[in-house]
Amino acid sequence: MMRYGKFILLAFLVLFVSCLELPEDVNLPAEKVLSVSALLQNDVAEQRLYLYRGGAVSDTSNPDIFRVSGADVRLSVNGLTYNYTESDTSKGCYVLKNFSPQGKTLYRLIVNHPSFPQIRTETLYPAIQDFNWSYFFDSGGNLHLSWRKNAYCAGYRVDMYQWKYGFHNGWEEEYFWGSENYYFTPDTFLIIEEKALLHQNRKVDLKFFVFAVDKNYYDYSRFRTYFDPLDFRLVDFGNFSTIENGLGYFGSVYRDSVIILRND
């Protein structure tokens, strides 16, 4: 996978040095505390939730060490309850299929397990709205990208990829690759230097994903950057929590994208 250099953002990007207002420490041994990793998303076939024992670090390529199975996981909204089911192939992974979250809506999560205290949490899903993209290149080749404010989110995550459409692995389809970097900002714009937009000194077509994110995910991004819950990689919750009687968080994101064609 090709990698871009780090974006140089002239927007004010967030990883604040100020302390987070975190809940009081859970007064239980680590092995008796559940950690939650879950996001509600608008463009996935199934919602996923992961449960871990304590706040330990777990490489999800070896999930049996820390993941917790046998839990009852329920999502409640507007008087209705939806049950997650545990995956048959991935221990401690719970899925909710064919579920699309509604904008500006509060979702409550309850997890019961015979070996752990009941945990509760909630997320306010961002508004579902058009981002109304706008962009231009200045005289120096720098990209100015902006989008419409989402009043029901705490901030934004932005990803950039090189993009192509054509035959790939025998299929005619869209595919994209590139940066593993992602950035969080409270603003509705960013500026990227021209050199970060090039591949081998050539202009390339680009695809940007912007996520309107809830407060839980936004606060987590300020607390720790070693884990990307959209990619389900490395988990280290430490003592971070937006969970009652547990660690980790339950968040939500609304994603949209824009393609910028500029291939030489």
TrEMBL record:
Domain of life: Bacteria
Pfam family, one: DUF4249
Protein name in UniProt: DUF4249 family protein
InterPro entries named in the record: DUF4249 (IPR025345)
